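re: that chain from earlier
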Amino acid sequence: MQEFLNNWIPHIMNKQSAFYQAFIDTLVMASWSGVLSFVLGLSLGVVITVTKPGGILQHRAVFQVLDKVINFFRSIPFIILLTGVMPLSRLIMGTAIGVEGAIVPLVFGTVPFFARQIENALAEIDHGLIEAALSMGSSPVEIIFRVYLRESIAGIARSTTITAISLLGLTAMAGAVGAGGLGDFAIRYGHDRNQTDVTYVTVLVMVILVSLIQFIGSFVAKKNTR
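^ sequence. v structure.
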């Protein structure tokens, strides 16, 4: 087996420690930025939903501000966002490079997208359920947790799956500016040194990660579809 791998992926075998570190760096970037993006994006999606015209906490000013801010950040290409938030990355993380420096731009690039996904998922809720909850005297907080979030678990799972896959792609793009991870590994060795086995193995690992995320997301969505 060892001889087979040495023949087919020699450059990977010669750089095993660097490859494993790149894999771990990708998981760290995706995990930390994913958790932060989930919490912030879910919160923003809920706030936008309940403050929009006709919402249970209708507030035109809050809705307009959040709507414009989300649209603004969604319109910025991620490669530009990477460099644009470097000062903020240095302020928050103490560095603008490496895995730590990539987390801030990854969050900024993911939260607006996920917030829109959550908004769309919550919009699928039958308005009759909300009216029924209001007629029974439920508070806005109770409606958010007992109606919006509980009834949208499948939709939220699908939105999370789409966002997580997109985030994984962004971590690879972050490697282009020295953030580390599989993207940086593929560019540094696969592209710059024309080591095609590095490129192919990196792509294969990314495909496996995406497939795993899709499987988990589809499973959760299916279990919570009524």
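The first helix runs from residue 2 to 8.
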